[in-house]
């Protein structure tokens, strides 16, 4: 375990050093995240300009969901997406051999392969939106609610990571998946809305099949003190199961790796 | 690179395109799934409209709008950016440059041949749903309906040349895929992908008229969909004429960028 902590720190240091070479990126990324904040808020402000509440969500509460969405998106773009895109590329080119040769868990290595530290700007932006949401609501969350919200958010990040890992595992069988990021990004975009806005089959799909509700809606409800204990525990349990399943699929997939070019 | 050799090569290029689409089934499927995103928007906004019309859009009009958006996206979107980016980065573009056919012709042929296959999967369902549940929202003027096909073709051409232009940026800096993210962000707002343009704030609508994105998605929809109450119908000249202008502008831009880029190309690794 200590070895993996050290390994993680080394990988992080390498990523930070790489991105420090492009310091001007910081300004570009900063401007870009301002743009994305505005972009994220636009449909919401259009909707709430005409309506007081949609499916039981008023403007302030819906802002919390978007804030959590932005935090998760920062985690996804900063750690998960970049690392796994690189993995898909390595599987295709055969460079994945070198990962398997290293004396550490392959899943751990590929999941931390490349971090984009500048995404921290987006992360702070998301937290800013959540804080603004509570100013809008005119109250502060209790410490317990904040803790519950963060715990569920971590579970949501784990669920998202599992989906990504399974998608990357699929690339052992089907080779070309260039636009996979685009698809997962587009699906994940739906998580900006509270799941209750959707009706019927859609809500079931987004809760159980593609657990977008688990990623943003439930963590938002937790910090808003609207989530009951059973749902919260169900969420945490579901995410643990998903992590286990994705790990199992990854290990089955690795066995069918045939090393492309060596 | 005479015109005759190019014309002779086109049937083969089309066949290659179909073969590639079938060979990379998974990628094709992923792409198909990506273009079905308007359905999610439809689910969202039709349940919003369930409590009463939203800025002139009731449930039915949202259904018609997003089904049309689905058809347009499905037939016109393109992944040529990924292809160019990949070929430039790995240096395999060198092979393409050696061939006696302009790369633009080759790209166009292979990508056009994927369109009928995509249409086969989505069109029947979308058209049946559109006709059965939202026929009343469509304009019945035969001229406008007849112009839908050319309008779709031009929407395809604008998207494709725009993608060629963005792809050509790969010659100049290695982060051209980041440009794609930005493109999608701007596209989603100004094309009517997130929301029908007429439900947007005035200044956004106004800006959208001067950008290419409206002509990529919203124009074919506006051509055949009845506008929301109180919103004037855009004239065919404005829609189709605007598209024609953007085809020319985008093609010129893409060709200029490509020419400048190829001159810098170093064929890394090849």
What does this structure look like?
The complex is a heterodimer of chains A (262) and B (270). By secondary structure, chain A is mainly alpha-helical. In chain A, a hairpin with a 2-residue loop joins β1 and β2. The radius of gyration of chain A is 19 Å and the shape is globular. Chain B has one domain. Chain B contains 14 helices and no strands. In chain B, α3 runs antiparallel to α4 and α10 packs antiparallel against α13. The mean pLDDT of chain B is 86.
Give descriptors for this structure.
heterodimer, A: 262 residues, mainly alpha, two-stranded antiparallel sheet, 2 strands, 76% helix, globular, B: 270 residues, 14 helices
Q: Most extensive interface, residues per chain? A: A-B, 31 and 30 residues
Shape of chain A: globular
Pick out the low-confidence regions of chain B.
Answer: none
Q: Main beta sheet of chain B, described?
A: none
Structural class of chain B: mainly alpha
| SSE run of chain A | HHEEHHHHHHHHH
Hey, roughly how much beta strand do the residues of chain B contain?
under 5%
Low-pLDDT ranges of chain A? none
Fold blueprint:
The complex is a heterodimer of chains A (262) and B (270).
Chain A: H1 2-20, H2 24-50, E1 53-54, E2 57-58, H3 59-93, H4 96-101, H5 106-111, H6 120-137, H7 143-170, H8 180-189, H9 200-209, H10 212-223, H11 229-255
Helix pairs in contact in A: 2-3, 2-6, 3-6, 3-7, 3-10, 7-10, 7-11
Chain B: H1 3-23, H2 25-34, H3 38-49, H4 59-76, H5 80-90, H6 93-98, H7 103-112, H8 114-134, H9 142-146, H10 148-168, H11 176-190, H12 202-208, H13 218-224, H14 236-264
Helix pairs in contact in B: 1-7, 3-4, 4-8, 5-10, 10-13, 10-14, 13-14
